[in-house]
Design a protein that fits this description.
5% helix, Gal_mutarotase_sf_dom, 8-stranded antiparallel beta sheet
């Protein structure tokens, strides 16, 4: 199997490209370490939504709905306030319609390429974001830490591994999500109508008009309940929904099935992510975002047990890590 890892260009931006057999992937170090492409070149599948050359300026201004953006800390915080260990950090209110802060500070800034390379069976790249005093992230989260993100491409597909290392002298919050943007259809000859999905959701959180959880659950509709077993279109209705995760058979995942191609895309995200967001751009066919998230939206402002809402604290010297995979399975038509 041919493997390659090299520095190149994606739509005019610096990229690190990985190849392994029929698979190809690209990551953008200078735009949040976004894994902007994951492809099966033999079958011409493009699993992630990629910006065209004409879309690049809009993408750079808002790099959220293409590829796999890293959100740290993820989603919304009421009035931009982030209470932590007796202090309150003030984030910028960047979503005026809700009066909240949205999506954190690491998805649109440069990361360092630590290394990339190959062996006979895989290609890989590791990127790091080292936050110290004077760093743009430190302005809002005054802790010393390193985010380290590795992508590995091999015959089985794409593996992602992320870690957070607290290198400071006090406990820090560790809250991560991905605004993963999946194409539906991802096959060139398929239509959105050929696609159904399954997702390991549990309960649906009730959300306020400001898109903040009330702390209560709301009943699942009969169609939402089908998400747990599959067979539901990812565009069955407009979704901007927040759920707990409910792993099945020890795994936490989304499966997207293309009935025409007889193939299933599996997004296995690991069980550290206790929440799902799902957004489908107002049920507009073409792509949707199954977003694994460690924490409840607005978690630091919610008076609930930390374990229940995924409010993770890292003590000095501690490391948190998790792995995820994107791969395909052939199924009988």
């Amino acid at each position: 199997m041919t493997t390659k890892a090299y520095e190149g260009i994606f739509q005019g931006e610096k990229a690190v490209w990985l190849q392994a057999g029929r698979y190809e992937a690209a990551v953008l170090p200078e735009i949040g370490a976004n894994l902007i492409a994951f492809r099966d070149n033999e079958k011409e599948y493009r699993f992630l939504r990629e910006p065209s050359l004409e879309e690049m300026e809009a993408f750079k201004a808002r790099p959220i709905i293409h590829g796999i953006p890293v959100l740290f800390p993820p989603n919304r915080y009421e009035d931009g306030k982030f209470p932590w260990k007796g202090k309150v950090f003030q984030f910028p209110v960047n979503e005026p319609k809700t009066g909240n802060h949205l999506h954190g500070f690491v998805h649109d800034i440069p990361w360092e390429v630590e290394r990339f390379g190959t062996n006979e069976s895989e290609s890989s790249v590791t990127l790091a974001l080292k936050v110290r005093e004077g760093h743009s992230v430190y302005t809002y989260l005054p802790f010393e830490f390193t985010l380290r993100l590795t992508y590995v491409l091999n015959q089985f597909g794409l593996q992602q591994h992320i870690s957070v290392h607290n290198e400071g002298q006090e406990a820090m919050p560790c809250l991560i999500a991905y605004h993963t943007t999946i194409n539906a259809p991802f096959a060139p000859n398929s239509q959105a109508a050929d696609y159904t999905f399954k997702m390991t959701i549990g309960n649906r959180w009730e959300m306020s008009e400001r898109m903040l959880p009330t702390g209560e659950y709301q009943p699942l509709s009969s169609e939402e309940a089908k998400m747990k077993v599959g067979g539901l279109s990812p565009f069955f209705e407009s979704m901007d929904n927040h759920y707990t995760t409910a792993p099945q058979n020890g795994r936490n995942y989304m499966e997207l099935t293309d009935a025409r191609e007889g193939v299933k895309l599996v997004y296995d995200v690991g069980t550290s992510y206790k929440q799902w967001m799902i957004w489908n751009n107002g049920a507009t066919e073409g792509f949707f975002c199954p977003e694994p998230q460690m924490n409840l939206v607005n978690a630091p402002n919610v008076d609930m047990p930390a374990d229940q809402i995924g409010l993770v604290s890292l003590e000095p010297g501690e490391v948190w890590s998790e792995s995820a995979r994107l791969y395909t399975i052939e199924i009988k038509k």
